[in-house]
Amino acid sequence: MKSTRLYDQREHLLLASYAMHSCDSEGRKHPEPRHPYRGPFARDRDRILHSSAFRRLSGKMQVFTGEMGIYHRTRLTHSFEVASVARTMARVLRLNEDLTEALALMHDIGHPPFGHCGEDVLCERMASAGGFSHNRFALVIVEELEQRYSEFQGLNLSHETLAGQDVRAHKSEAAVGRAPLLEVQLVDAADSIAYDAHDVDDALQMGLLTVDELSELAIVRRAMEGIRGRHGMLPIRELRQALVHELIDLQVSELLQIAVQQMQIYEGRNYQDIQHLGVRFHHGNVLQKERRELESFLFEAVYRHPRLIPVRESAAQRLNELFDILMADPSRLPLRFRVRQQRMPTEKVVGEYLAGMTDAFCDQQHCYATTTPRGPLADW
User: Fold this and answer.
1) From 194's CA, which of 81, 101, 344, 363 has a CA 20 to 30 Å away?
2) What is the residue extent of each domain of the chain?
3) Torsional sign, CA 349, 322, 354, 169
């Protein structure tokens, strides 16, 4: 079809030789005819965007669970922010923006309710069934649990999008040897950059941190110098917003600066060459050290903040109680999970059901399960 050829020609003109081109995709598990005016990764992006699992991210808090999280970032807003940062970098480096965006929108789709404490609970309770990883569960969602097509289970995403998420599920293995696609690497970098900067923003807004405390960190001092050099002294609200922007900008700028120089010698190579050569994007040594310092500080000062601990403990208790109820009486699982239980370990199926819930839905089902002695819980 003429429009399909034009799509391929456009990518040939705009993308670098080492980008993942749509015409090189390995296709889908269930073959489908090519779309007349959308490439395979644009279709992946749209399928993820329209999935119910993606919409549920609006009810899953990023860090601050319960009442603390109402006015702060959810997994949904974080996913959009990651997609924005990653797509900007992909455009500069002439990589495939559609694939980058699809990967970014998908990357957190497997997160359970209640942020980090929800994952900790499920990992412990599912230990005998291989534990729990939100990155692995994202693949279960898009390959099995999403029900949007009559012809097959899941979303039938392209091989490259699924493989990119699989890299996230096996990060230690992906860190050596054959490199992931460059688009996959960009999303991983964008996730880390956005996550840290926005946690700083939310923590400052809630009063868990002060600018003075943050200014003990080298990367924050560097950002503050840039802000004051351009704007002088700012009111605290404007300073907080400027700090978040500056933290993102300086990290993105350095990564791009290094990557542009790095990729000059690979012009004419294709994506497979880049993978076999083990080419990986990176920050400079100084910024890498500064980022580690920031993340270590956030872990201790924010994620373990005294105001968060009782909220997290309460959420973990409710999730554990719901897990116990369903393990004791699996007939209370929704129908499609009872069907899955016939061929899978009960703790794995219970964990999957709980992992797909939003924070509020989990609380609703906990209330129902603890006050009503029988009857299946609602499906999500």
Assistant:
1) 363
2) 13-19+39-309, 317-371
3) negative
